[in-house]
Amino acid sequence: EGRETRLRVVLRVRPLTCTETRRGDQQVVHSLGDGAVHVSAARHDATFGFSAVFDAGASQEAVFEGSGMRQLVELAIDGFSCTVFAFGQTGSGKTYTLMGPLAQSDTQPTSPALLGLMQRSFTCLLEQSRSRGSDLALSASYLEIYNEQIRDLLSPGPPCALPLRWSKTRGFYVENQLSVEFESLEAIVSLLLQGSQRRRTSAHALNRHSSRSHALLTIHVRSRAHHPSTWLLQAGACPGKQGTLCFVDLAGSERVKETGSSGELSLEANSINRSLLALGHCISLLAKPRGKRTHIPYRDSKLTRLLARSLGGSGITLMVACISPSSRCLSETLSTLHYASRARRVTTRP
Description:
Kinesin_motor_dom_sf, Kinesin, 350 residues, alpha+beta, single chain, motor protein, 10-stranded mixed sheet, Kinesin-like_fam, ATP binding
């Protein structure tokens, strides 16, 4: 607590897809073990280091246990604000890492081995909650940022834009967002699915179901205070703790020409790239030593405003960078790796 902690950055390299193998793409990313990864292609020969690297063979379980996700859940219960980001180019496996395969339905439930970081964290959170009796109150809110508008994915009716406000005590917050209490795994998974189905996705050249918005699912963990006697209550002892666990699925970063987008789609791609640039800019400035830091421009985008707390000091953040090993994605892969290495230098004081 109050100690400087670095952002924890882990890397996940997905397997080559059937299309890539058929096309004869080369595998240009190789894991060297011990958190290091090597990129070797014509004119490029670079090694990057991370807290952990998960290669194509790593199971969803291995990513959950090896990324430090379980500790984040425990810290959220202890009252810290915790955030996990997945970022990388479209089709690099962000949504799969966070949620597992999305084709979940009642008739065809997903195999437990394929569940992503979110469902595993919910299970872990509910187990902890049960072991503590009834003193944890859990609720969830789910937002998307689409074309720089914030929309509530849980409130009934057509999604409408919500205002983002700032207050001295709360920092940036979204006005009128719905927060839904839950007590079981079924309830939170159904909220997740309901919200995910309302997210803006569209098909383009790189991905059939590309997420065209940044989505933020926040779990609020309130531990109810224990009061052995009313005397303690008056003395103000044992206040309840409030932690949050926020999952951020960033929209894919890629050049507009690669997606073959035009019209509304290219507007989407531009606003996605603008907010990712703003995030990258904040991360670069935060990566400087504390004494040399200038003003951090969180106000440049809605995304950076909402993430100001987790990036700028009082939170604990895990970043999962997702990349494709294909030679065809080399430039995007390198930019994700550079972005992720920069993020490793950011320190916060939770």
